[in-house]
Design a protein that fits this description.
This protein is α+β, with helices and mostly antiparallel strands. The protein is built from 11 helices and 10 strands. α3 crosses α8, α4 crosses α10 and α6 packs antiparallel against α8 (224-239).
Length: 278
């Protein structure tokens, strides 16, 4: 065991995150994450770091006790997901404070994502080609439904902007009011509307952590629609992209998420949304 390896401080679908010394973390792959994915995430992260985006500094790929991982700068703050959870568990709040929290979280997220989308000309894969591949391997929709979703995707305009690919609240770290984005595995060049659609779908349908008490879960569930509404309003004000333009991307992005490691309830919600739109 390496002497610098500290306690486990986080976990995702494909990795465990451990402290590394006093100011770094190492993201160690689980068995479901292969070498290609690790190398791709590291290379993507290096690209956005070199472009000057607000991300933790990447250092190197390391092997620890037979597990490959990526060494990063440690951001000592809270994730947006953690902020929602902490606000939910802090006790009853007034309607005024609840709306203030919603607006604050929506504003900082919209401003961050809009900033990401101002970049282009990075050596990253095509968002559209990735989406076609992922939709094609989804096993819970019919061939006819896949063809219909792919036809929708083909009709959408093509853009060439940097997209994060997985802008969910767990990948948005906040330190002293500044956002640092993590997990650039799915970064691509394409349409900002797809990133926005991904965020909307996550906010509306993602299952909450199982440890949340019922009252706290009810609090967060009660924020979903208002959070989406304020976020879309803020992003649209910054970018000029309309809700109608974003809405056109919901079905293709939702179809992509069917191939992810998600729960049965979330999968059912996505399927219902897709089929309603076809």
């Amino acid at each position: 065991m390496n002497s610098e390896l500290g306690p486990k401080i986080g976990e995702g679908n494909g990795s465990d995150v451990y402290a590394w010394g006093s100011n770094k973390v190492i993201k160690l792959a689980k068995p479901n994450t292969n070498l290609y994915a690790i190398q791709r995430e590291y290379e993507n992260h290096c690209l956005v770091w070199e472009k000057g985006l607000s991300v933790p500094q990447p250092f190197e790929i390391k092997e620890i006790d037979g597990r490959l991982g990526i060494l990063y700068e440690r951001i000592k703050g809270e994730s947006l997901l953690g902020r929602y959870v902490n606000q939910a568990m802090s006790g009853p709040v007034s309607d005024e404070e609840r709306m203030r929290n919603i607006r604050t979280n929506a504003c900082i997220t919209a401003e961050w994502l809009y900033g990401v989308h101002q970049h282009s000309c990075l050596k990253l894969p095509s968002q559209r080609e990735i989406m076609k591949f992922v939709i094609g391997r989804a096993d819970c929709i019919t061939v006819h439904e896949k063809d219909a979703v792919l036809a929708l995707l083909e009709r959408l305009p093509v853009k060439q902007q940097l997209c994060h690919g997985d802008p969910n609240p767990g990948n948005i770290m906040i330190r002293n009011g500044r956002i640092f984005a993590i997990d650039w595995l799915n970064a691509a060049i394409g349409n900002p509307e797809a990133d926005i659609a991904e965020y909307i779908i996550t906010m509306k349908y993602a299952e909450l952590p199982a440890y949340l008490p019922g009252e706290s879960a009810n609090y967060i569930n009660g924020l979903r629609e208002a959070s989406v509404e304020h976020f879309v309003h803020e992003y649209s004000s910054l970018s000029g992209i309309t809700f109608e333009e974003i809405n056109s991307w919901i079905a293709p992005v939702a179809a992509c998420k069917l191939s992810a490691d998600i729960g049965a309830e979330e999968r059912a919600r996505l399927l219902h949304d897709i089929r309603t739109r076809l």
